[in-house]
């Protein structure tokens, strides 16, 4: 079955619409989720459970950056997202990726699921409609990729990739997102306030 990128993008936008936006970039650990999601480092998890990193990593190679454990408690589920020691941007993407797996209901880690989780994370951290709006606001001399990377706290290569995928008619969900988040996007035509 092919990856359903539209579903992944819509799930990310829906999650953003459920937040009270104050600023971009999105900090995944500060979001409110429709299910119980907790975050911890793999090292922290090992300290609490007396497990070793070798035991945790023995579960598979997929633990390179992060993973999600599902804990059933009193009839409910708790999703524990574990991550390795990563830098800020990469950590934020890893967490968004894992949340994508959770909210998309993935129960296995195949190529399709990984691609969908990546699409979810990309849309959550740099929504297409907001990237398009920001580039529309740029003065002519500005470097769009650099502005996107700075605003959404991504790498320059991720921003360049997003610039290649800005086309398309906005969906109703995207229009709602722009209405909600557009006012908090920085205006690159104005100098920053001191």
Q: What can be said about this structure in brief?
A:
The chain has 194 residues and is mainly α.
Relevant terms:
mainly alpha, 2 domains, Arc Repressor Mutant, subunit A, 194 residues
Strand content: 5-15%
Helix content: 40-55%
- Number of H/I helices: 9
Side-by-side strand order of the widest sheet: 1-3-2
CATH topology of the largest domain: Arc Repressor Mutant, subunit A
How many domains? The number is: 2
CATH architecture of the largest domain: Orthogonal Bundle
Give the overall silhouette: globular
The averaged pLDDT comes out at 89
What oligomeric arrangement do these chains adopt? single chain
CATH classification class of the largest domain: Mainly Alpha
Q: What structural class do the secondary elements suggest?
A: mainly alpha
The radius of gyration over CA amounts to 18 Å
